[in-house]
Amino acid sequence: MTGKRREYDEEDVRVRPGRSSRPRTRTRPRHADAVDGFVIAVDRGRYTIVVDPGEPPVTAMRARELGRRSVVVGDRVALVGDVSGAEGALARIVRITERTSVLRRTADDDETTTEGRIERVVVANADQLVIVSSLADPPPRTGFIDRCLVAAYDADIEPLLCLTKADLGDPAPVLEYYAELDLRSVRCRPDRPLDDLRAALTRRISVLVGHSGVGKSTLVNRLVPAADRAVGAVSAVGKGRHTSTSAVALRLPGAAGGRDDPGWIVDTPGVRSFGLAHVCADDLLHGFPDLVDGTLDCPPNCEHTAAEPSCALDAWVAEGHADPRRLGSYRRLLASRSRDEPAGDQTSM
């Protein structure tokens, strides 16, 4: 040995990477063995999914690779893990198929954050929105129906007006109000079969929306007896009380799977309003096709409000081209897009 002192440089230092500096690959597993499923319920981070109509539903959680992507009722997903449906089994959702439609609503005023009203996805991949309205007890609320129509047209899904309690009220005023829209409708009585409604729901994914007390849950129980959706009485003030608490997709009775699939209905909780803050002002007109031609004579950038002196809609209505109530409803929707204005969806006939 010599007494010469060794010199060290940076090549002699071994650096161990910390947890935060470990290189991560962008390659994600392909999950070639994943199976397809249909989300029928969501509850606190757990998803109930139908893989095989003849087998028990699968409980699953979201895989980390999905990031912030939400999973909602109606989504078609790919699953890995335990898809047996056995008690205690848990699968993972690793992919979400591109949605064909997304029905949204803006949350109620009491759910507003500092960033504004919360936008909620009601259901994915629906192709029909069934607007349930009673003809009496409570009376039909055209303001709510108008909101639902706008939401349906915005989501590019077909609306269907379902009038319940037809034994207690005359449907003519409601149908006349929407005569210019060519809106499909069915009428339901508690003492008559639901043949017309069943025919309209067959082989489709339909979302049922309606105020509490209009008989929506009663309809669901008649269509799908095994559903056992909660039913409650209408309150003394006519607003009803919430009886359903969570959205769920229910398969209509009949042959399962393939071309013989009888269809699905998505029952939604009773809602007090159907917020439209996510719909731009111009798109609100999609729910009022009877007013569209009247805006052709409006000046550029006309806001179509009652305070707009040059808005041509007033003359359009005065000349008898549209029902003045329709113009009033449209302008209430315009006003309700501001968080400081009332929702205005309670207008009754």
Say how many strands there are: 13
Going across the biggest sheet, name each strand in turn.
Answer: 10-9-8-11-13-12
- Which residues sit in consecutive blocks of at least 5 with pLDDT less than 50? 109-116, 232-244, 255-259, 340-344
Binned, the helix content reads 10-25%
Radius of gyration: 26 Å
- Structurally, how many domains make up the residues? 3
The CATH architecture category of the largest domain equals 3-Layer(aba) Sandwich
Query: Which fold does the CATH topology of the largest domain refer to?
Result: Rossmann fold
CATH superfamily of the largest domain: P-loop containing nucleotide triphosphate hydrolases
- CATH top level label of the largest domain: Alpha Beta
Class computed from helices, strands and strand pairing: alpha/beta
The general outline is flat
Instruction: Give the SSE string.
Output: EEEEEEEEHEHEHEHEEHHH
Share in β-strands: 15-25%
Secondary structure tally, helices = 7
